[in-house]
Amino acid sequence: RATGAISGVLGLRLTNEEGSGELFVDVRDVSGSDPAVFAVNNGVSDSFIRVRDLLSGAIGLRLVNTDTAGDATIIARNVNAGSEGISVANSGLGGTSVTVEGTVTAGGTGVSVYNDASAQAISVWTQGAVQGGHSGVTVSHDGSGSVEVRADGMVAGLGGNGVHVGADQSMIWTTLRVFGSTITVRSFTIV
Fold first, then answer.
1. The model scores a pTM over 0.85
2. Residues 90, 67: contact at Cβ < 8 Å?
3. Contact (Cβ atoms closer than 8 angstroms) between residue 76 and residue 51
4. Contact, 32 vs 12, CB < 8 A?
5. What residues contact residue 98 under an 8 Å CB cut-off, 6+ apart?
6. pLDDT in tens, 147-168
7. Rounded distance, CA 106 to CA 85, Å?
């Protein structure tokens, strides 16, 4: 469990050991090299990370849920990163939820979410502007359950896609809500 303001060359590094409970992080004003916040959940419960005001020359926030972990939940506000703003890899047994309350600016991808075959649904909600030098939001879903991407603010990929969703399962329903318009598609890839 980590709370408060953190600064340093390495930022914040957290690892939940095998068999442990919830991974809980609530921090603000974090700066570090790569990434500013890095968390790995090897436990048997959920990951919850809330961050505000992250600054990194590379990755702002990176969360890895391993195969015994549960849900992955991230709430972020104001992330500025040289490569990826927010990066989530969920190989656990639960779903993934990412909410961006403020802005994310990144040199590569603003928000990147990957669910492995054992993981459940994905939800990404951007309330503020998300801009990536390559892509704004990228979602890759090999798990079961639906994918929902809701963009209430601008999402821009300067060198690629604003929003890219790829799903390995043919029965995945993808819902995109962009500025009040809703599109629901059953598809492998939406670009």
1. yes
2. no
3. yes
4. yes
5. 74, 76, 86, 88, 111, 113, 123, 124, 125
6. 888 888 888 889 888 888 887 6
7. 5
